[in-house]
Structures are given as structure tokens and as C-alpha cells.
## 1
Amino acid sequence: MKIICIGRNYAEHAKELNNNIPTEPVIFLKPKTALLVDGKSLYYPEFTNDLQYECELVIRMSKNGKYIQEKFARKYYNAMSLGIDFTARDIQQKQKEKGLPWEIAKSFDGSAAVGAFMPIDEEADMQKINFELKINNETKQIGDTSDMLFSIDQLIAYTSQFFTLNIGDLIFTGTPSGVGSLSVTDQLDGYLEGKRVLSCLIK
Ligand code: MG
């Protein structure tokens, strides 16, 4: 399986990191070794001094497909959860300045925390999904998919031009504003449509 991540898919988040609003989706990948599931803790990596959280809606593919048309994309996924796109922001900043790839800042072991999946109702409006991240019980990010620059179905159509999407692949659909730094002992809890689906402790 693979983990496809979308960058800068919410205008307010692009602005908070001083990035331009993209005209096409920004894509990067995380390997399977990045997965952090079942509420496991993340050990603060030694190579960074600025580990940050990005809470994102995660979509799980239920069918294989290539060149999926936007109008049919909805048939290719059937479950959703929340994920944390853990980012070594100091390293990412250096890579961006040099025009180098982001993987060492974003695709390290444990960098893709994923919570429990909820089935998606066939009638659900995917552009009206809300989610929230609390850290140490304080709200840090509030997201609503209506604020996405590219809808989930547009993201699937776009990414499947380049990558065959397989059953079980995950798509991190981008983070809303409010990202920030983490410290050891921080407890992250993610709520999807009001239900807690994700929990992760920084050790
Ligand atoms: Mg992200």
C-alpha cells in the first residue's frame, strides 16, 4: 500500500506557511513504514528541533483504478478517518530553500498517524465533513472539507493520472490552518464528525 499526501489544500494553511495558493494539487508520498496505527505513541525524532502536527481527513481506497474520472471517483473509496501528517518543519524549511524533496522532513518512520476508520455513507456529502484536533484537551485545528481548494473526488482524479490507486491506499487530503509545534508528553486527539477516532502521545 502507499500513502499519498496532499499539500496546501486549504487556503488559510497555505497562507500561514507563506506559500502561494496552488493551481494544481501538491503531492508527496509516505512509505508504509511511516504508518502509526492503533493509538501508538510517536517518539520525538532526534533529527529535528521542530516536530509539528498537521491534522487531516484520510480517505481509504476500496477499488483499484487509474485515470479515474472525477464523476466516478466516489465509487473508489468507502472509509475515512483522521491522520496526523507529522512534519519536521525545520528540515522541511531547509529543503524548501534548497529546492530539494521533502521526504526526510515528512516521510520518516511514524510520520503518518492514522486513526480508526469509519464507513462512508453512500449519500454522504464529502464536502461537508468536519473535524477537530485537540492537544492536551485544547482545540488547535478545526477543519471542514467545504474549505478544500481541491475536493476529494478532484484529488483522486488528479493523482490517479500519475499513480495507480490500489485497494487500501490512503490519501491524506491536506491540513487546515492552526498547525504548530509539539513537545514530549503532548497528547493528540482527533475528532471526526464529533467522534474521537485518533489518539497519539508524543514520547
Ligand atoms: Mg500535510
## 2
Amino acid sequence: MRTDTKKNHKRTEKEIESLIRKMTLDEKISMIHAASLFRSGGVERLGIPGIETSDGPMGVREEFMSDRWIPAGNNDDRVSYLPSNSALASTWNPYRAYEIGKVLGAEARGRGKDVILAPGINIKRSPLCGRNFEYMSEDPKLTATLAVPFIKGIQDNDVAACVKHFAANVQETDRLMVDEKIDDRTLHEIYFPAFKAAVQEGHAYSVMGAYNKVNGYHCCENKQLLDKVLREEWGFDGAVISDWGGVHLTKEAAECSLDLEMSVFPDFDEYMLANPLKELIQKGEVSEEAVDAKVRNLLRMMFRLKMIGKEKADRKTGTYNTPDHRNMILRAAEESMILLKNERQALPLDAAKIKKLVVIGQNAVTIHSDGGGSAEIKALYEICPLMGLKCYLGGGTQVKYVKGYHVPEKPKTFDHNWQADSLDDLKDSTAGILVREEDVPENHRAQENERLAQLKREQEEVHEKNKALFAEAVEAAKDADAVIFVGGLNHYIDSEGADRVDMKLPYEQDMLIEELLKVRKDMIVTLVGGSPVEMPWRDKARAILWSYYAGMETGTAFAKILFGDINPSGKLAETFPDVYEDCVTAKNGQFGVWGSITLEEGLYCGYRYFDRQRITPAFCFGHGLSYTHFTYGGLTLKTEKSGEIKLSFTVKNAGKRVGAETAQVYVAPIGAKIDRPDKELKAYSKVELAPGKTRKVAVTLKREDFAYYDEDRHEFVTDPGDYEILVAASSADIRLKGIAPLA
Ligand code: BGC
């Protein structure tokens, strides 16, 4: 975990101990809880500042008042709007992850922050989880390999990444109290690996404890998670920060490896790790040593960030809103968009042949950066798809925009914030009284009913208004050289605090698309969203382009791809099921319910489930087309003395355009003695090739790439035997196969 030299480390540890010895109990306690909504307490007398934190994963959030969830109203806190993690993961490019991390770190530092509350690396278990847009993938390997460079990028700026939410924060329903029952093997093979890599390879300086419970205990008071796994097994010596309001019990939180309590209420002295803790220490029920341990971890992080100590003067200063940042954001956006379907070479469009373009759909003009929950930001600007198209085409093309469908507006609240509201229930539990299980269902049913009633009212409003809008869109579509539909989701739907109710496109978009395709078979369908949607019309559409929330240059990248300046190279980092009913969480009902859920499916999350059940999704994990095509060949496999498997193969660009292909390597155990997924992603490589060119790709698989977690031995085990190695263009498009014998 240590990144500093042995000598420096020793010196720092000595300085930490000396500081702790000088502190009074009050001073120590002031350091381990919030002193304002996003800042911890410092000890001025000893030159120890408070720690400035900020959301979040898509850019540095706007400033809030120190004790109320009201924006400070500044005009200097606009920032670069980064691609969401779901977009970034679709690039399958660790270098892009590094660059975007670097932008985030520089902007955080530029805004005077010490800890940026990112990246979100929870595994996508159900396509309906409201926060999926903030997360990377359903696959632990892909998530881990992108999280590591992202963290390094952030921390290269002397800002700490706060990797969140540890662990298994897989649903928003009942997010503060839900108890997730997960077996050990599933935790170690699916929900832990990205966090382990973040700590051991990314050297993340901090980790955020999640809201939910895992196996009976809240994550911020969970000795198994924090003491045993994070500290003991993985050797983490950085700071564990609670999610905002994630601490419920003083003694438990004091005695486990949580270091800093943050929350949403302004009564900072009454936080669990403030006065209540002091009382327990004074009564002798908690030892002062427990507080010292927390202070030690926080100080260690502060030394690493050069907030204190001899290197203070060398601390990077950061910067925000630079042209360089915007370029990096554009490049990532360009690589993130996924061409799901392209028949009859419907795409790219030829700008020279289009005199009149009709663009239909609200996502052509929707601004997404200011929504989604704590990931919202105040963007310097956001180029929406319509603006991107207009900027690209210039004045020679007539671009007509029609709404197509109606989106009901949500009321904006000014005197209070959803974030404080969303934790209202917590008031009871932070007072030490855990909400009693038997009280819960009625409250929740009432809330759920209210939400569904609201949705119904909105649907009625939509239906009423859509009549005229549909007619207008169909008429407009008839009279154009090309038609582009830009629909999808928005942050009313992809949002923190609530899960989606279904996987359908909202606002009757399916009906509209069907109608439009009747009059325009050549209509290009593009969708912007943060999580998969059903596409019942997909056989009828010739071309479908998917974009996650891709940052401030979304519209620019979008136009460049549609008109062929950029050849799409994004691939899905998650399965797009045909219908929600095909998903494991729909089958076992263990998602989106209050109280507790059991992850009955175990390892069978995402493509692992679709593979095992032989269910064909609409678009599989790893899928993504290009304007060129690639052929694979020449697979060689060699077992090294060390037990590693070295493989190589070639990828050729067999088409006429420059393009990039992500070759994926899956391992499929043959005749395993315990139940194992049919195949699992273990490596990938993205190669850019000129037309006709061939590149040799070399991949090394380590013994641990063949391992499973043995629950009895409490460790990963690699059994000798034969393993099939699959080289693939997607999880369903296997191009080459070989057998690797492991001794
Ligand atoms: C979210 C975190 C976020 C924190 C601070 C919580 O509601 O779960 O992801 O970092 O608030 O805004």
C-alpha cells in the first residue's frame, strides 16, 4: 500500500505519533467528524487544517453553504464536466481512465479540495439501480483495470481519491438501511476485486464506507469489511470516510476501522464520533486509543497529500477549466459511444448529401450535467447533441428540431435540498434508535405508493401532450434528407436515491420510434442514458448509437461519430438485456425491496448469468461495432515455468477506415471441480489500426487469473487442469480458442 520510501515512511510515522501526543482529546475528536457539510475539523494550534472534500465522479461539485444544503451561489465554481464512469468504462481504455482521473484531480486541487469523492466502482448487479450511471461495469476485472489508472490520475495531483461505496452498494431502494446477504465467495470474486485493486494497485488514499449493511452490519461499522478485509487482508493504511450519514452507532463506529464521520446534518457536535463518543471515552466504555488510530490514518493521508509536513511547499496547485482538460474529455467521449447496430451502412452519414436534417427527441437538447444526485455539477458548458450537430454542419445545412415527446418538469427546490431530505429517515437512526424493522414496511409502502402515483400522473400528462408532438414529428420526418432521433433517459430517471421502476424508455418513446420508423426506415436512432433500456423496435432500426452521459463535449463527439470523422470504438461494459424479465434480479426478486435482500444469484451477475442460462440479450457485454471490421488470427499459447500463460494473437483491420478494436480474453474452466461461471473476462487490449494493417497482441495471464475463492480456506485457489482461453470481439463473438494446461 505504501508508495513512499521506507525512510520517508518511518519519518512520517514518527511525526504522526509526535502530533498525536501533542493533541488533547477534544482536538483529536474534532478531526474525526465533520465541521461543515464537506469539511472535517482541523487543529489550528498544531498547523493541521481541516480536510476539504467534494463530490464527485463527473467533475467537482459546486460549493455549498457550510451548514445547509444550499448552493453558495458562486460564479467561480463552474468546472469541466467529465464523462460519467459508465461512459468511461465503455472506452475499454485504461489510458483514457488515467487522463480523466488526471483532469478530475487537477480540477479538485484547483478548487482547493483535498479529497474527491470518486470514483464510484460498485458492480452493476441490476440494470435498474438508480446510480448505475456513476459506476463502471458489471464485471470486476474491467472495473478494476479502469479504476486503478483513474485513481492514479487523481492522486498525481496531490488529491486523494475516495473510492466508493465500499461495499456492494447495489441498490438505491432503502439505501440507508437495506441489509444485503452475500456469501463470502461472491464478495471476494465479484464485489471486492475492484476495491482490492484500488487499494493495492491504485494506492487509493481513502475509501468511502457505503450506506447499506452487508451481512447484518452497516458498512461503516462493519468489522468484517473494514478491519478484516480492508485493513488486515489488503493492508490498507489510508483513511476510511463514511458516506454522508452512514454512521449509526457510536461505540461500533469508534471500535472499527472507520476514520472520519461525515453526514448531512448541521449539528456537527452531535455526530456519533463527536460528543457522544467523548462521553463514552469519559465513561471508560471506549478507549482513547480507538480515536488515536483514526487520527493516525487521517494524518497519514494528509502527509501523503502534502497538506502537512516538510513537503507542504511542493504540493501541486491544480487548475480547472483548461483547454487541455476539454480536449481530454472530448477524446474520452469519442471513444465511449457505442455503435450497437449498423445495417446497410446507414452510418456514417454523408454531410455533403444532407441539405435538410430533422432532429427529433428531447435528449437532443437536454442538459444532463446538473442532475443525478451528488454527481451533479455546475458545468462550464455542455454541448448537447443538437448543438454538436449544428456546430459540425454549419450554416449550409438546414437543421430542424422537433421535441417528439413530452418530458414533465420536476419542481426545483430552493430552500432545502434532496440530499438532506433523502436522509430524513436517518434522524431516528442517528439518535441511536435503529428504525425498528416492524415499523418500516408501512412507511415504505406509503412512500412507494406516492412515487408510483406521481409516475402515473406524469404518464397521463405525457400521453395527453404527446398526441400533437407525435404528429408534428412524423410530419417533419417525412420532409428531410436525413432524420436523427435523440432519445433515451435523463437524470430524473438515472438518479441517486431511487431505483428505476422498469427498463423501458420513458415518455412513450417506443411508440414514437415505431411510428417514425414507419415513415423513415432510414432514421438513425441514437439514445443517451446511464443504464440499459429495452428496445422493442430494434429489429426495424438500421442504426442504433448509444451514448452514456459523456461530458461537456457530448454533442461534439456525437456529431463527429455520426458523420464519420471519428470511427466509433466503444464497447458495452454491461449487458443490455432484451427485456428486464430476463435479468436475474427480475427472476429472484431480490432487488429494489426494502429491509433486506439476498444475493441469491451469487457469482451469476451480468453476462455470467446470461451465459449460464443461455439467454440471448439484446446486446451482449463487450459488444460494439465500428465503421470498419476486424479479423483475428494466429493464436499461440505458452505455459511459462512460473505458471503464467503467455498468449499472442493478431488483429487485422480488414476494412477501409482507421479504427480501434478491443480484443477481449476470457477464461473458461474445463471440468472444474466446483461450480464456476462459464467464462470470465481476464484481459483485454485496445488496438488502433490503419486499413489493412495487422497488429500482434500479447497478453500474460497470471495464475490468479484462473483462481476462485475457496470459502473453507478463506483464500483464492488455482486448481491444476485445462482451461479454455477465448479471444473475442464481445462476450458472444468468440474469434479464437485455445487450451491452456495449468500444472
Ligand atoms: C452519496 C455519496 C456522496 C455523498 C456526499 C451521499 O449521499 O451516497 O456518493 O459522495 O453523499 O455528497
## 3
Amino acid sequence: MKRVVVLSGAGISAESGLQTFRGTDGLWEGYRLEDVATPQAWAANPALVLDFYNQRRRAVRAAEPNAAHRALVELEQAYDVQIITQNVDDLHERAGSTSVLHLHGQIRQARSTRNASLITDLGDRDIQLGDHCPLGSQWRPHIVWFGEMVPAMEEAVEILADADVLLVIGTSLQVYPAASLAFEAPRRARRIAINPDAPREVQRADFEVVAATATIGVPEVVRTLLKAVANHDCTRCTH
Ligand code: NAD
């Protein structure tokens, strides 16, 4: 089975009602990133940071996977599909994708401020100031903030090393080091970017660009990839 690696970003969940943050105003749901998504913000105003992520968690709970998330599940019929996502929502999992690596953490989890490997499932619960882990320290959102290490990068690079097809969906490629993964697939891999406003970097880097929203573009690309397997179309290098 050939491997399809998906690098997804906020754009894949936009049509589920979850805002991206590099839209028109550069804010994330009205907040400056420096005020809510950095270790400095956490040190300065943890109540504001908790409130921001509590709101994001409620928005994720209210959202449903869309046709793009679902199409990637269908692709598993004929491919080894490995999803690497920058998103903190769980829409890939709720659609039914079986292999999802979260680079930037998960909104429905909390982690200890004393021991980063101590993680708990929150489900839909909020985190409040004074909610303590078993070690006695404050729980924080299990989110990789700007300026923090991305521990899953090594695993992501390993997954990409065996990619036959790379789909880069709904990401501005402005957030590093995650963005560098778009250029980590082996030379032989077919590269496709799906984004109505694809970043210039992919246009320069030998990608086929599908300039459509995720709910239109992803099912279209998935149909083509499934058809290639059905037709044993080796010339397209997809199975
Ligand atoms: P981004 O906000 O920087 O860029 C969004 C990209 O999606 C843009 O290139 C835009 O053209 C594209 N886009 C917009 N609507 C689209 C659609 N309907 N279909 C396809 N593409 C569409 O997003 P990013 O590159 O993922 O970086 C943002 C960071 O913010 C991520 O690391 C993530 O952790 C966080 N974030 C996550 C969520 C989420 O979990 N749903 C939402 C907002 C931000």
C-alpha cells in the first residue's frame, strides 16, 4: 500500500466553523496571539489564557467534521494515510481517521505545569485557575505555544520519509518549525496543495495546486487518488 501523508492546518476546519488565524485581521477570534498563545502570556495573565482556550474548546465541541475530514477517511480504503496536523481540534479523529499526529497539542487535553508528560483528557470540561494535577501544580492547556518546542517534529519527519503522496491542506505555512514539514517529503513523492489562497512557497516548490476550499478540493483529490489505484495508474505514482 502506498503512503499518503497529509499536513493539515486551520483551513481544513474553517468550513466546520472554526476560524483560522491568518485571515483578514491577523487575530485569532479577536485576540492577539502574544496575549493568549505564548509562555509569556501564561505567566502574565493565566486566567485570560485559560478563558481563551476554554472558549476554543467549546467551539470545537460545537463543530462537526466536514467533507474534507471525511474524504481523508475514505482514502484509507486504498492507502496508508498518515495525518500530521497543526490543528488542536479533534475533527480528524471524530471523522474516523486512524492515524493522527498533533504537532501543536490538543484542545481537549490538559497537561501539568510541573511535568509536561503528565497529560489528562478533559473532554468538554473547562480548566480553571486552581485546578491542580496530582503533583499539586496548575493544569494548563495541552497546547504548544509560540516559542515552545514541538516534540512531535521528529516523529513527523520519520512519517514523511516514506511518503509517496503529500497533501498540504489549509495551511499558510507561516508557523515554524511545522511549516518546514511541507518540504520534507522524498523527491519522488507527488505533492499536492489544497488551498484557495495557496502560500507562495508551495507554488515555487513543485506542488500541484488545487485552488479550492477544503470541502471541494479534498474530496476531488481523494477521488482521483482512489481512481488511480482502481485503474493501476502507475504513471501517476500514487499506489
Ligand atoms: P493559518 O490560520 O495560518 O492559515 C490558514 C490557511 O488556510 C490559509 O492559507 C488560508 O488560505 C487557508 N484556508 C482558509 N479557508 C480555507 C478553506 N475553507 N479550505 C482550505 N484552506 C483554507 O493556519 P495554520 O497554517 O494552520 O497555522 C495556524 C496555527 O494556529 C496552527 O498551528 C494551529 O495550531 C492554530 N489554529 C488551530 C485551529 C484549529 O485547531 N482548528 C484554528 C486556528 C488556529
